[in-house]
Amino acid sequence: MKIVLLGCGVVGQGVLDIMDEHPEYGKVAKVLVRNTAAHPDSRVTADPEEVFAEEDIELVVECMGGLEPAHTYVRRALEAGYDVVTSNKKMLAAYYAELQDLAEKNGCDLRYEACVGGGIPWIHELIRLQRIDEVTSFSGIINGTTNYILSQMTEQGSPFADALKQAQEAGYAEADPTDDIDGYDARYKVALSAAAGFGILPDTEKIPCWGIRHVSAGDIAYARENNHTLKLIGSGRLYDDHAELCVMPRMLKNTNLLASVSVNLNGLTAQSTTLGPSSYIGQGAGRYPTAHAVVQDIISIGEGERTAGHCYEMPLNNDLTEEVYYIRTSAAEAFRSAAEVIDGDVIITKKIRYSELLPLLESCGDPELFIASVEE
Predict the structure, then answer these.
(1) Cis check: omega of the bond before 69, within 30 degrees of 0
(2) Could you tell me which of 115, 108, 69, 54 has the C-alpha nearest to residue 89?
């Protein structure tokens, strides 16, 4: 199988390393990079036209990251009838419907195992479950960077700024950590999990998204004192006529399996009709775990395995589930109507729907508010 690789950064280089060690999986003929001087390999080029002019291409692997030009190149590959493997969750979440339609129209496969869960075969398992079952919900730690930060704060007592710096030094966080600590990375992954597990096309921008940028040692201490552990959780639940999707910190009971998933690991659980809960824990990021997932997709395509990509639109509605929320804010009085307990700057709400709480969150005027749902 003749392959062209778009992007040779952290993940792309890992893919190239594995493929060169295992030529039986396919031959990487061309590698598109921004700076050829940084890659002393005869296969590299900075010219996309040279890549797409390569004869007898069978598969395009995209590991560039970002929206453009990755989206344009993947679209071009699908229009030309090439199968595509991508690790680019941000791009795919933004253009999923368009690209899956193109793949279906042109008889191509569009695979994205590496977009969610790193080395965990999460997307594969969601698709596999559906051969027998309906996937009714999923939930989990879906971002290794935030899990590392929260683990350092919980287990080592590190302040947030120090834990973030440690994550950056370890290679788990980018120089600009916005996508991770504000929850956007997890939101892309929730959208793609819903596509694979529920067969729906969510509007990513409409998924409620709360990150950990403003988490404090006091929030960690409150969870500990109440036999809970704080994690950033991405979740989804499927109903007959709508879906609930959300990214939010959650105070998990210490008896919850996910409470023990530490450092940069991911942990995900799917609920399906006859199997019940099935859980997966493993490396959620990094060069070789993510590259491993890309190569697994390459092997599957080489073996002729196809995935069903068609999805349908379904409205999002987070109105049915009532939760208890922990809120820390300088504007505590703004939440009196929703509060069960007010203790200084901390509010514990009564059981309430997110849609009832949202107007209070939006109008309280506290840009450093921290919110977490509480597992009862």
Answers:
(1) yes
(2) 115
Instruction: Please say whether the dihedral angle defined by the alpha carbons of residues 306, 304, 16 and 7, taken in this order, is positive or negative.
Output: negative
- The superfamily in CATH containing domain 123-282 is Dihydrodipicolinate Reductase; domain 2 (3.30.360.10)
Instruction: Say what the pTM is.
Output: 0.95
**To 5 degrees, how large is the angle CA 339–CA 181–CA 75?**
120
- For residue 254 the two structure tokens come to 């210490």
CATH of 2-111, one of 3.40.640.10, 3.40.50.720, 3.30.1060.10, 3.40.50.300: 3.40.50.720
Asked if domains 123-282 and 319-376 share a fold, the reply is no
Active site residues: 189
Assigned fold of 319-376 = Alpha-Beta Plaits (3.30.70)
Tokens of 50: 């040279």
Residue boundaries of the structural domains of the chain: 2-111, 123-282, 319-376
SS3 content of the chain, % helix, strand, coil (to 5): 40, 25, 35
Which phi and psi angles does 103 have, rounded to 5°? -60, -45
CA nearest to 219, candidates 95, 67, 329, 101: 329
CA pair distance 154, 363, nearest whole angstrom = 31
Q: 122-129 and 184-198 are packed helices; what angle lies between their axes, rounded to 10 degrees? A: 30
Pairing of strands 370-374, 243-253: parallel
Strand partners, 281: 267
265-317: pLDDT as tens digits:
999 999 999 999 999 999 988 889 999 999 999 999 999 988 866 688 888 98
- Comparing C-alpha atoms, which of 55, 108, 53, 59 is closest to residue 81? 108
Residue written as token pair 């921290």: 370
Determine the residue type at 221.
A
**d(Cα 321, Cα 237) in Å, to the nearest integer?**
10
What the block records as the tokens of 156 is 């080592």
Q: What is the 3-state secondary structure (H, E, C) of 220-275?
A: HHHHHHCCEEEEEEEEEEECCCCEEEEEEEEEEECCCHHHHCCCCEEEEEEEECCC
Predicted pLDDT of residue 286: 81
The two three-digit tokens of residue 269, written as one number: 């659980």
DSSP state of 153: I
